[in-house]
Predict the structure.
Amino acid sequence: MRTGERPPEIRLIVCDFGGVICTFDYRIFCERLARRMDRTAEEIHAAAFGDRFQADFETGKLSGREYHRAVMARLQADVPYAEFYRMYGDIFTEIPATGDLLRRLHTRYPLYLLSDTNEIHFGYVRETVKVLSVFDQCIVSYEVGAMKPDPRIYREALRRSGLPAEACVFVDDRAENVAGAARVGMHALRFESAEQFAADLTRLGVVIL
């Protein structure tokens, strides 16, 4: 941008999920399943998240039922899928201030969700986290086959929007994901709080009602 030029108008806000809309804690799942099976939480964590297992789940190499079967095989257990689904999914706590801000933003701007997630987690939060209804598009890693900061997942958001990168702003709580968005030309913000997020948006010219 040349000196004296106005910054491009922001026409799309793209938002991460975990750490921005909700906090989450995998230990909740590990401790629940450990109690159910009389195992340790450490054993559950190793079986469910060890090696590249979780990354394969979050890039769509495993479906929810395939992941469940694989974890059960590793633990030599037989917890029914519906019970496992609830235990695995119910690890999120909403950040109310973010939800309030997103609802205000949606009165003027389209909102896209862009999240590293898997079939179970996304299915569960779509049923339980009501603020997700404000998103016009949801770009999720297990459908795209790529996780942040891989440029493919950001470019999928741009492709769906039909907008130039400089007309879009992305927010995430992880520095490497913010940097990934910046590399494809998006405005990129590091999330610390809803109040700080609102202030950063205002500096970019976003109008918050």
